[in-house]
Every structure is written in C-alpha cells, then in structure tokens.
Write a structure and sequence with these properties.
The complex is a heterodimer of chains A (134) and B (253). Chain A has 134 residues and is α/β, with parallel strands linked by helices. Chain A has four helices and seven strands; from the N terminus they run H-E-H-E-E-E-E-H-H-E-E. Chain A has helices at 4-22, 42-55, 90-98, 103-106, and strands at 26-35, 59-60, 63-68, 71-74, 80-81, 117-121, 125-132. In chain A, the strands form two sheets. In chain A, strands 1, 2, 3 and 7 form a four-stranded mixed beta sheet that branches. Chain B has a single domain (10-252), classed as Rossmann fold (3-Layer(aba) Sandwich). Chain B has eleven helices and ten strands. The longest helix of chain B is centred in the last third of the chain and has 18 residues, at 235-252. The radius of gyration of chain B is 17 Å and the shape is globular. Chain B starts with 9 loop residues before the first helix and ends with a helix. Classes of the chains: A alpha/beta (134), B alpha/beta (253). The interface between A and B is medium-sized, with 29 and 33 residues.
Amino acid sequence: MVHEWALAEAIAEYLDNMAREKGTRVIEKVEIRLGMLQGIDRDVLDYALKEILKERGFTVHNIVYRNVELLLRCRRCGYQWSVSMDEVDEAVREAIHFVPETVYSFFKCPRCGSRDFEIVSGRGVEIGEITWGE
Amino acid sequence: MERSRGESDPRLFIIPYRLASVKRIIAVMSSKGGVGKTVVATLAALNLASKGFKTGLLDLDFTNPSTHLVLGVNPLDYVPEEEKGILPPVIHGVKYLSIAMYSGDKPLPLRGEGVDNAFREILAITRWGDLDYLLIDTPPGMGDEHLNLLTYLGDRVEIVLVSTPSKLALKSVERLIELLRDGGYKILGLIGNMDDKGLIEKYCVERRIDYLGSIPYDPEFENVLGDLESIRQTIIWNKLDEIVDKLVEISRG
C-alpha cells in the first residue's frame, strides 16, 4: 500500500479530533483538495480514507475531491508559470510525490533561473469545507 | 503534542502517533555551524545501534543534509520503501531518513514555509516503528527547523548541545540555552568538540549545564568519513562511546 495511506490517516486523525468537538461522527460532505504538484493517486487516497473512517466508526456520505492546478511564482522576477507533472521525469515526480519541497531541487524559474519561487497553489493535500451531520 | 486552537493541517495530528513507539528522541543542536553536530548525531546513532539499541537517525537539515556522508552512502540508493507511509531503510543497523534520499546532492533552498512543509510531510509519513532512540541532526541556526521541533515535539524531545571552545560558538550556545530554558525544554547536557584543553567542562560548571564529555581534535578524521570500520578505530569514536554510555545512563536514572 502506497504512502497515500499515511496521508489518509492524517486526514482521519484530524476529522476524529473535529468529531469530538462537534459531538457527531456523521459527515455529510468533506472536500479534499489535491494539489497537482504532489500527484496524489485519488483512487488510492479515496480507498484508504473510506477504510480508515469506517474503522473509526464514521458515517461519511460524500467525499468530494477537487484538483488544484499548480501555479508557481518567481520571487525574484515575478514570472508566473505552471508545470504539467505528466511531462516531468519519473524519478523527479516520485521525489516530489513524497516530499513536495524537493521541487526546489528540480525546478527553476524558466525566465531568470532562480529557485526562490512560491508555490501559489497546487502543492499537496488539504482539507476543504466539512459539513457535519446530526 | 499541543496544538494551538485553529490548527487545521491534518499532518500535525498524525505526527505524535508516528513517534508513539519511539522511547526517546534526542536532538543534537548548536546554533553555530561547523561544531560537529552531524558527526556527533550520526556516530551516536551508530554507537547506540552497536550496543544493541533499536536506533533511528533523522537528518533535519533539509537544505544541507550531510549525515549520509558520515554513513558513507549515496542516499539516492536508499529510497525508502512504501508501506502505508514510508519505511526508513536500515543502514549499519540504524533506521535512517534524510531528505537527500529524494533530492540527492542537489541544492535545496527553502524559505520558512518550505521548511515547515517538509518537516510536517516527513514526520507525518515516516513509520519509525519501535525504537529505543531516535537521534535527530539539526541544522545550525535558531530557525524554522528548531522551532518546529520544539513547538510540535517539545514534550518528547531531549536536547544534546555541541560546542567547540571558541568564544563565538560558546556565545552562540549560550543564547540557545537561554531559549531552551525559557521554554522549559529538556537539555541533557553539552558535548565539547575539538576541546583539547577541557574548556567546555569549565564552561558547563559556570553555566550549570550537565557536561557530557569532550571530543579532541583529530586531523585524520576527515579522511575516514564514510568508512565505518576506520571510524571505529578513531579517538572520536572512543570518546563518543563513553558519552553515549552516559546518555544511556541518564535515561536509566
């Protein structure tokens, strides 16, 4: 089982904490945002998350996944660009998949060559809006 | 791990569980660079493993990881296996993890936010399993890596300080001691490096810091870096062997 499982456990742990505060283990809807940089396998994450939440006694009606496009902005020259991860070398993609910050080893601003750029959007896994049930 | 109200990064919620089966977490720190943190952290991990303890080593110096140079391995040959997270490979009996397993020896410049994310990601996905000791090599400075470690794992981590007898290094360690004492963090003591005149022991008495021992300057050590068999023949290894015994004793006491 790939490392998406570890991220699913982190999401479940977070929801567990929230559930104790809310006093319910019913989730009507939870949105998971998937940054395109990390290249998370949505199906694997979905499978892991559903398994773990079921084990923990949650009833989850709807998990919505939303891809977030990658946008990078150079802090030195202001250039903004995106990268299609499908076109990136597999070994590099793999490194970024595990630790997205290794992107700073592999990507440079296409205009000025600086590695001091900002990941404006599309880094990794984030939890969006959660609608709790009764 | 205490979380401030409103903290919503799921990775922070899983980190304590990832380290739940680690009995002791020891971070080797010094604000000054070049005082021997990496050598101390790496050799202490190897030494603990050679004494039969289940030991891990985490290189927290994301922008300049170098523990692999002491271990004598190409980190790209040791990409961790995946099993519901990542499993640190075992090198010379030590479970080892470094960002260099992914970034190799390429430059990895990181601003604070990047350090925070790398810290959270690595600690959230790494499955250390049962360990007696997890040694952490930290970068120089007093910045994001250290604050992350103290803020998110401060109730678990024990700190070993390293300094040379240089006035510059000692001033630097003094500031670090103040920071750690103010925050109520556990300082195990100070190790002197290149301390041929025993100045660090005197310093420890003056500052009321536990003295863990000193390592002399060994001009030949550079030549044996990465060669574990030769490292074991050095005076540095022998001195660290005594220091590690002391650290183990502290834990028993």
